[in-house]
Amino acid sequence: MTEKQTWSQRFESALHPAIARFNASISFDIELIEYDITGSQAHAKMLAHTGIITHLEGEALCNGLEQVRQEYHQGQFRPGIDAEDVHFAVEKRLTEIVGDVGKKLHTARSRNDQVGTDTRLYLRDQIQQIRQQLRDFQGVLLDIAEKNVETLIPGYTHLQRAQPVSLAHHLLAYFQMAQRDWERLEDVYSRVNISPLGCGALAGTTFPIDRHYTASLLHFDNVYANSLDGVSDRDFAIEFLCAASIIMVHLSRLSEEVILWASEEFRFVTLKDSCATGSSIMPQKKNPDVPELVRGKTGRVFGHLQAMLVIMKGLPLAYNKDLQEDKEGIFDSVNTVKACLEAMTILLQEGLEFRYQRLATAVTEDFSNATDVADYLAARGVPFREAYNIVGKVVKTSIAGGKLLKDLQIEEWQQIHPAFASDIYEAITPRQVVAARNSYGGTGFEQVRQALVNARIQINI
Ligand code: ARG
What we know:
Helix content: 55-70%
Distance between the termini: 53 Å
Radius of gyration: 31 Å
Shape: elongated
Bound molecules: arginine
Largest sheet: 2 strands, antiparallel
Low-confidence stretches: none
Mean pLDDT: 96
Strand order of the largest sheet: 1-2
Number of strands: 6
């Protein structure tokens, strides 16, 4: 198809080759080819169903499109830059296969409603794949959590030791984030799954089309109520990119923790050889490349969200070619999120070994049981703020004396406050400190066990 043929007789000369390259999207929108063919088949069926073309013609178009699909799968059909975009490429190949009837396919349709349809069909599939990956990721988090209800790990605020927690509780925090991601994508899906097909270029069409018919063939839940909105809306893309960005936030936070945990300073985990890399110069190194890459890749997904927002902000109705810029960001975000979810799931499943001995000592070597001493007094009638001040002083003198709270003698405790009795020692063991936080959603073992049961039910595996 030369440019002259493409653009009607209005044009006298072909595009400048550099401008043709600049204009073309085929190098990336070829990703949509399956959806373009499926969308076109639905359109052809509708044209026949409504009598706009004959049933024979409709059948010829559908079969021809199926052949284009096969040729693409078998590697025989590889459209080049002259096709401009995937929509022209498919239509041109179809017409070569079926002859003049191929030229009827674009009746009552525009590339504007076509590309919107294709992008939605693509995202629909990808969203479901990502949701399944989130489920797998949650499943692995749960598997590890179930084995580690009674494994204690220092809990932090401000990255300072705060209170010990159950390792399962810590992992379940990421489970909850992934659960919101899964639900958020379900919500995004409901707005992705609306058909713009039949909106035409911008104003609808003079033909007696049936938009609900194509929508139901393509399993859309609904159709856009306004044609101008239908062809130019990219809210669904912004929403998807936002949901993708939030997934990346969560993966990046987990990555950061794994990187810290694997450091010599923390030593909470060892990276297994299958998921770690070495240094080209320092033979002793074992690097956490996987979580570092996930943390790093987060930036590009945020970037695509920002780009999409900026693409949209000044657009007058309806379609503008600016919208061609939506695709690469969507594709790259989809690929990035999928790759990162896969890598993090593998890393959790087989790349991390918790260092139990080290974790057990880590929770005993600090003052993270100080709140429990204050709670001990408060439970015995001392107003909490007063108890807090008393324990603050005890911590200060203990640090000066090179002692931990567990090292204080009973006489010392009783000098601090007469309410202290010998059960203070049990109250401040890391195990008891964790067990005692039995408030709903807390790290107490009872709560965590219940949370694990609920989580299993939630993901239903
Ligand atoms: N390649 C175009 C895109 O991705 C298809 C729609 C072109 N529409 C047009 N009016 N030029 O947006």
